[in-house]
Amino acid sequence: MNHLLSLLIFTPLLGAAITLFLPNRVIKPAALAFSLIPLALCYPLFAGFNAALPGMQFTEVHAWLPALNIVYSLGIDGIALPLIGLTALLTPLCLLASWHITKNPQGFFAAFLALEAFVIGVFSAQDFILFYLFWEAMLIPMFLLIGLWGGENRVYAALKFFLYTFVGSVLMLVAGLWLFATTGSFALEVWANTTLPLPAQQLLFLAFFAAFAVKVPMWPFHTWLPDAHVQAPTAGSVILAGVLLKMGAYGFLRFCLPMFPEGAAWFAPTIFALSAIAIVYAALVAYVQTDIKKMIAYSSVSHMGFVTLAIFAGTVTGLHGGLLVMVNHGIVSAGLFLAVGVIYERLHTRNLAHFGALARIMPAYAFVTMLLTLAAVALPGTNSFVGEFLALAGAFPSAPIYTAIATTGVVFGALYMLHLYRGMFYGSPSETVLHHTADLKDLTLREWATFLPLLVFIPLLGVMPSLAQNLWNQPVESLSAEYLPILQSHSTPVPAAPQTAPITLEGQGVTASTTEVISNTVPVSPTLNTAH
Amino acid sequence: MQTLAPQLVTLAVLLPAIGALLGALTYLIFPSGRAELSHAHGHDDHHDHHHTPASTSPSIAHKLTMLITSGSVLTAAILSWVLFISLNNGTISAFTSDWFTWITVANWSVSFGTLFDKLSATMLIVVTTVSAAVHVYSVGYMHEDPSRRRFFIYLSAFTFTMLMLVTAPNLVQMFLGWEGVGVCSYLLIGFWHEKATANAAAIKAFIVNHVADAAMLIGMFLLVMTFGSLTYADFLPRAAEVASTNQGTINLIALFIFIGAMGKSAQFGLHTWLPDAMEGPTPVSALIHAATMVTAGVFLLCRMSPLYEVAPEVLHIVGWVGAITAIFAATVGLTQTDIKRVIAYSTCSQLGYMFFAIGVSAYPAAMFHLTTHAFFKALLFLGAGSVIHGMHHEQNIFNYAKSGYVLRKLMPITYGLMWLGSLALAGIPPFAGFFSKDLILESAFAAPNGSGMPLYIFGTITAMLTAIYGFRIIFMSFHNKEIPHHEEPKKSAKSTRSKSHSITQSLNHPITHHTPHESPWLMVIPMLPLAFGAVLAGYLLKDMGSLEWWQGAIVIDHAHTALHDAHHIPAFAKVLPLILAICGITAAYYLFAERRDIPNTIAKTATLPYAISLNKWYIDELYQMMWVKPTQALASFLAVYFDKKGIDGLINNGAATIYGFGQWLRLGQTGYLYHYGLAMLIAITTGLAYLLWKVL
User: Fold this and answer.
1) A5-53 pLDDT, tens per residue?
2) ipTM of the complex model
3) Nearest residue in A to B228, CA atom
4) Per the CB < 8 Å rule, is B102 touching A465?
5) Exposed, middle or buried, B544 (CB in 10 Å: 0-12/13-18/19+)?
């Protein structure tokens, strides 16, 4: 049996434990080295992954609590794989960006490595209890990172972050226990193959939705995010925006769509509306922020709106787009938060009014941030474009009006990003900049090292999105095949839309396999049932 | 040749990109130094390149970059001409080539590649020729600028994206070019990023264009949904078939794509960014905001002619928008004082002509005018740049008049070239504009059932206005009485214009006392090929006006006979625009060279029309009220009241209530564990109760 996933989870965890007891001067290099192990392990993971196979790969199953049929079960598909890759890539960059941490560095770097372990655990767990364990465990290091190494108002932000997400997850736990009572298993695969009556699906959907919607975060459950971002240290923001938010969307894809498709379809119109609101609302709110970190935090809410809109639209195009936005946002927003960190380290302010004219004295920094800004406004040729384009094009047949509203988000998105860029880099220098001109050195080598791995992906995934898409082609098609027909039977006919439209387009490969999937659903069995 | 052609087209498209990349790579060897920051007070109103702080980049870096970028664009221009001529004489035929697949999903995909036919070949020569001229011109124009290396990289990057736009075989790659030119335009308008006005203009251009692009995206989503493809060769031939069952969708698609085109081509309603874009360096205005990028909308509609031909209602709208733009911009151009803004409004107006040509299905006429216009308008802008350069960055034509310098004697070459450009603009035979503009007006006149008659009337009036404002520039700038130069030139009266515009600032600037001079050869020589085009392009390329020349790149429905019948209209209709144009020039001479008191009197007596024209029909003010202010107010409201006090307030109050409740409970209990347990229990039960209530 392959132990790659276990290694990916436990090497950083071990690293975290060791880091706690290391002397101060070796902590940083040691932690960085530990974080490079999962990154290196990604090579066999990606190389050994066969995108053509259905189902989970790199599976590991060990009995854990047989009395409750709880199993240590790991496995990934093409949806989880890139998110694990993203986590493994961002963690070393985060550690590099935290080189200035002087307050209790053991704790900081240990917490970070533990966070990495738990996040990878979330993406690879195939047993609900294991999933839930990682999901909740992940809160602890993040809570500490914000609460101990954060800004002035860190305790408020940390508590808010914790309580918000915790309340959501509790409902998920209740729903999970109910499912166990019904199916007798915690295996996600069993749940996915169980067809439940509509009322049950609706309730379960809502319970899981609560957990994931808070995490995404969807409007109006988003207000924890700006506070958490603003108070979190740079690295915390990077990992929060880059990976943690994706866990919500991942949850939708792993739980809500395959397990409760009827429920999801029933609530889809509401989610379309919430997503469209999120995209426009958050972009507008971002525009009037004075704190640059808050601006980018709200921009995350806006971008994740594209993800939820596209996922629940359920078309193959939309799911591809949603997943691409997840990956791309992980790269671009991580880069933007790193960029904020660069200037915060030098000026100790995040107020937009305190910058200006930085392009004249920090040209390399201006260049890097410009690349990230262009990616953030989804310029074609950058990675974000393909994602947003497919997300919207894919959502359009399912929800034309909401998609049209969401498309206007493109305008507001450009508005706040250019406003942000102008305020920081163009125009006349503020007094703060003038007084600290000497401190405003351009990017150091270490900072370049944090940016370069991210910048590479901007043009790469911009012109070759198939590098990522090929990974998840298979799960995307089977998800869409199961969910889309249900959604279409639910929804009223598309207004002002052509008759030729969605079914033929998205459904060609779909209609054939749909019946197959439905006939394959296993009857609810109360017997013990491990997935393998 | 035919087998080599795809590689050559690819090379022509990629050369400017290679130039830009190599130019950017010079930063690795010669990083740009740190500029000195100074207190900005009183420095906001700099003009052109004086103000940029000195940088430490060695001049070798600049020279290397200028050489690489200009060289690669020049090579691309030569290649384009070879390809164009070969296609024209039949040595090679039209083709599509695939580079590699870009996006694949489900059962549709999009590839990178090139589509080379008469349309793209025409755009190739237009773009590369003007770009090459502008590159060389900029070597002279920007020679003092410490950031000129960056300028050339942007110029070449722009050229590359523009070529991507015109050679794309599908709408997505076209959109890549479309957005790419938008970004380059943004970067170049805001090139002097120390200037607040330049930044504001750059952002305005980007945002207004994005409003249009959002519409265009929706059009593309509709296309994917309806046709399952965004490749021209897939969906254009099927447009008629789909329209027969689903006219509504076709109309929507055509309309949304047209709104996108309106943004880029600065049509009435979405034009407000173009005059402000004049904040950029003048070579940029010539290349991007006159000859190439702004014509992208016209090109796109011609490219999609099979679709527009089956959406006649939308064509009707296109025609009207074009006509209104043409006359609106001409009326505004009459009173503007900034030489560049006058030409900008002129561009807007001429683009209006192209759209109303499309409105009567005379796509070839539109493309013909696009081509001739590119030459004479770029020439006019470069000429204006030469004047601005000679007059030490003064852009106000009234200040030229008051300067006491007789520019036609001091800058004779520029003067002559401006004449050529203006004659072409006014449509005087045998200059280029005459052939193309007349064809447009004749087509409008000949449109079936007189549907183009209002357009013809609008266009003919515009022709006269064009001649007036065009020659107003010439006579105001060059035909002045000499005043001995030791005398302090009078400052002009305070303008009524809104203070945010740079023009007000320039009015307050005393003119420097250096005698104006003819521009250096590096600026004059690149104007010559453009002047050649302004004079002869109309005659040499007059075949462009016929449908056959386009060899299927443009499709016109048989019922739309406007272009076909354009040659069979009454003689008076043919010569009327010409007569009016000549009258316009004469009037301009009289009003702006001989009796300059008359325009003043007119302005004082006809105050309302004058104010409307001078203030650009108050559209900026209207948009400020309609869009900008409400959006800002809404955003602030949402941020402060909804997000902070609303949602967060609710959450915090909820938390406080639970906390208070817990405190109260704690009176009877002491265990923390119990406290948390209870809080959890409450959360679960309320949550579930809510769920039940929601579902049942």
Assistant:
1) 999 999 999 999 999 999 988 999 999 999 999 999 999 999 999 999 8
2) 0.89
3) A505
4) yes
5) buried
Distance in angstroms (rounded) separating the CA atoms of residues A373 and A332? 8
| Identity of the residue numbered B436 | S
pTM above 0.95, yes or no: no
For A47, the 3-state DSSP assignment is helix
CB contact under 8 A, A285 and B694: no
Burial of B420 (0-12, 13-18, 19+ CB in 10 A): buried
Tokens standing for residue B670: 């002491």
Residue A30: count other Cβ atoms within 10 Å of its Cβ. Answer: 17
The alpha carbon of residue A68 is apart from the nearest alpha carbon of chain B, in Å, by 23
What is the rounded distance in angstroms from the CA atom of residue B371 to the CA atom of residue B118? 12
| Contact list, B694 vs chain A (CB under 8 Å) | 206
Spatial CA neighbour of B40 closest among A164, A426, A35: A426
Contact A429 B37 (CB under 8 A): yes
| A156, A389, A499, A511, best to mutate vs chain B, most B CBs in 10 Å | A389
Contact A207 B228 (CB under 8 A): no
Count other C-beta atoms under 10 Å from residue B515's C-beta: 10
Q: For each of chain A's 532 residues, which pLDDT tens digit applies?
A: 478 999 999 999 999 999 999 998 899 999 999 999 999 999 999 999 999 988 899 999 998 888 888 899 999 999 999 999 999 999 999 999 999 888 888 999 999 999 999 999 999 999 999 999 999 999 889 989 988 898 888 888 888 888 888 888 888 999 999 999 888 889 999 898 888 888 889 999 999 998 999 998 998 888 889 989 999 999 999 999 999 999 999 999 999 999 999 999 999 999 999 999 999 999 999 999 999 999 999 999 999 999 999 999 999 999 999 999 999 999 999 999 999 999 999 999 999 999 989 999 999 999 999 999 999 999 999 999 999 999 999 999 999 999 999 999 989 999 999 999 999 999 999 999 999 888 899 999 999 999 999 999 999 999 999 999 999 999 999 999 999 998 988 765 444 444 343 333 343 433 333 333 333 333 433 333 443 4
Measured CA to CA, the distance from residue A255 to residue A79 in angstroms comes to 13
CB contact under 8 A, A210 and B242: no
Query: B684 to chain A: nearest residue by CA?
Result: A171
CB contact under 8 A, A389 and B217: yes
Q: Yes or no: say if A41 and A88 are a contact pair by the CB < 8 Å rule.
A: yes
- Residues on chain A touching B30 (C-beta within 8 angstroms): none
Nearest to A411 among B53, B214, B639 (CB): B214
- Tens of pLDDT along B564-606? 888 889 999 999 999 999 999 999 999 998 888 888 888 888 8
Task: Map residue A61 onto helix, strand or coil.
Answer: strand
Q: Please name every residue paired with A65 in a beta bridge, in sequence order, or none if there are none.
A: A70
- DSSP secondary-structure letter at A163? H
Q: Kindly state the tokens that stand for A423.
A: 């305020």
| Residue of B39, B180, B217 lying closest to A434 (CB–CB) | B39
Give the contacts of B133 (CB within 8 A, at least 6 positions apart): B378, B382, B526, B527, B529, B530
- Does the pLDDT at position B54 exceed 60? no
Cα A510 from chain centre: 27
Q: Which chain A residue's Cα is nearest to B42?
A: A428
Cα nearest neighbour of A494 on chain B: B225
Question: Are A442 and B655 inside 8 Å of each other by CB?
Answer: no
Q: Do B172 and A380 touch (CB under 8 A)?
A: yes
B104, B210, B220: residue with CB nearest A414: B210
Among A210, A380, A469, beta carbon nearest to B180: A380
**CB–CB contact A285 B194 (8 Å):** no
**Are A379 and B183 inside 8 Å of each other by CB?**
yes
